[in-house]
Design brief:
Layout lengths: L2 E4 L9 H13 L7 H10 L6 H5 L4 H21 L7 H8 L4 E5 L4 H7 L11 E3 L12 H9 L7 E5 L2 H9 L3 E5 L14 E3 L2 H12 L3
Parallel strand pairs: 1-2, 1-4, 2-3, 4-5, 5-6
Amino acid sequence: MLTVLWDNDGVLVDSEGLYFQACREALGSVGVGLTLEQFKDISLRRGESVFLLATEQGIAGHDVDELRKRRDQRYTELLTLRCPAIDGARDVVRALHGRVRMGVVTSSRRGHFKAAHAHSGMVPYMDFVLTREDYTRSKPDPEPYRTAMERHGLRPEHCIVVEDSERGLASATAAGVNCIVVLSEWTQGGDFTTAVAVVENIFGVADEVLRKAGRC
């Protein structure tokens, strides 16, 4: 049976804007600006920490650690207050349930994942969830997807990844797994040439998944 490995932020839940807000507020508290383009480049394309901007301004490591804690607390608050599911995500996940196996492989911390999905209704349809605590090196490193496959006895050719960012695509590709990219306002304009398909919305993901499932 085909296994779909879902990214979370920007694919299942509309959380990227909330993360950007939390990062910008934390950096702004010490006088460091964070533009939208910087966030997209550093976080979504390169998979690095936006707090490198603080380090470049000479802010000490222990102070950066405090900023990160402040960001994480604020992000949890924002997720708890408002974190809508991506339009159609619940319907697609429900429709695929029982026809394919599904898991989530996310760079989010476990607490943030739980807050984001407190009311999403999607987690019961998942066979497993891997969060940032489950591996050492985050995307674009292949470790997250390799860890998911190793833990659950999966082969790359029997999996397909759904991502929305260049760093996520790079992670899946390096792990040897085909990847569908669903475009979002946060990642449009990225280089997705190594994806097996690029779709406009999550309903297009369902079509691609079922097509591949029929060949497995």
